[in-house]
Amino acid sequence: MKKSVHIEEIPYLADSCALFERMRELPGAVILDSGFPHAQSGRFDILSAEPMDDAPPQPPRAGKESECRAYFDELRRFHAAHFAGIQPVSEDVPFCGGVLGYLGYEFGNDLQGVATAADPIAEPTSLNAYEWCVLQDHLLGRALLITLPWVSTTRRQQLLERLLRPCTVDAEPFALATPFQCDSEVGAYRQQFAAIQSYIQAGDCYQVNLARHFSAQCHGDPWLAYRALRPAAAAPFSAFLHLADGSALLSLSPERFLSLHGHRVETSPIKGTRPRYTDPQADRLAAQALRNSGKDRAENLMIVDLLRNDLGRSCVPGSILVDRLFEVQSYATVHHLVSTISGELQPERTAWELLRDSFPGGSITGAPKRRAMQIIAELETVARGPYCGSILYVSADGRMDSNIAIRSLLCRDNTVHCWGGGGIVADSHWQSEYQETWDKVGKFLTLLESLPAIA
């Protein structure tokens, strides 16, 4: 039986963060943030809270590859059982309630049959089911409260009252108690880099994404950290998630992993980075150097080929296209080289099979994927947790979007964790790769270290 959602228009706020502050004290509050109104921002922001009591199934702990693949069958059954008959609202409503959360990188290790050596830093997945959301459409300048059919009139009215009531943030300012420390300073990084070069020369792999982990002691409200970092990132696939264990995930990602709209699948890997400069001429030259770099184009092309292969497991044969190749996109702190690949999902498949057959994203592993992940597990001493996993939603009507959770921070047990990484290929130089990890996240770390002085 077809079921229609309930939609009510509410006053639009250009700053979705101000709207989120009216509901962020609710359990499981999340915002998927497009970075509006900055350059390269997206169209929609999605806000929700109060997950349903009946949560999606949990993944197997350190499961076998077959068990992890079966987990996506369980998610598909859960989604079908809880959201059966929900009809697509319109082209202008990407999410109307459904499953939302993250898949962590180490769950990808299990899925790919790779042993994880480092101790876990967070839950392998955190997925919840939501029965209402607020959708901010920055293109049309409108905001909607969307509720699934069984949400009562009384509950809708309570939500409306909350969303229409301005509030002030009454929280402890976020600050660091110690400066950031890195587990992989120059000496350790050079050794890791040399090991990867040896593997490449031996023909084990073509590219490995090596990450560095930064951490600092902290106190205060992580939401205020996100508010401080947001202008410095202005990224279209950002997010803030309150997690069940009391921790918070802050993502300022510029990278889409997978989207599914109808049967159209799209992925947009990033490979190739240059820092931004305040001097306009130097900034233009940096973008031009990235656009013309043979090394960066080759690195990007390796991942394009990997993702074409990943999509080939789920898409109609012959439907996969490279829509854009080596496009320079400029963000607040860096220029990136971005390509876009699309395909048509096979009729019998859903978002869950698409995720299963593509996770984790190839842009943050290397090529070939499984061997690169084995090398990462061997060399990196700290688990990645949500970093390089994916923050995602699968709407009640089957539409899906997801990010690659780079430029992400985890605030847990009075510690803030951050990672920066980059792809290493045969002609990489350790000094420039080491610097690139800092170019990607250094501005965020420096800003957080300055917060006590400006709190």
Report what the structure shows.
The protein is α+β, with helices and mostly antiparallel strands and 455 residues long. The mean pLDDT is 95. A hairpin with a 2-residue loop joins strand 13 and strand 14. Strands 1, 2, 3, 6, 7, 8, 9, 10, 11, 12, 18, 21 and 22 form a 13-stranded antiparallel β-sheet that branches. Strands 4, 5, 13, 14, 15, 16, 17, 19 and 20 form a nine-stranded antiparallel β-sheet that branches. The protein is built from eleven helices and 22 strands. The longest helix has 25 residues, at 430-454. 32% of the residues lie in helices and 29% in strands. The protein has one domain (6-164, 177-454): Anthranilate synthase. Helix 2 packs antiparallel against helix 9 and helix 6 (222-233) crosses helix 11 (430-454). 50% of the residues are buried.
Largest sheet properties: 13 strands, antiparallel
Total tally of structural domains: 1
Percent helix, as a range, is 25-40%
CATH homologous superfamily designation: Anthranilate synthase
Instruction: Just give the CATH class.
Output: Alpha Beta
Amount of beta strand: 25-35%
Structural class: alpha+beta
CATH topology: Anthranilate synthase
Spatial gap, N to C terminus: 54 Å
Total number of beta strands: 22
Alpha carbon gyration radius: 21 Å
Question: How many H/I helices?
Answer: 11
* Corresponding CATH architecture: 4-Layer Sandwich
**Could you list the spans in which at least 5 consecutive residues all have pLDDT below 50?**
none
| Average residue-wise pLDDT | 95
Rough outline: globular
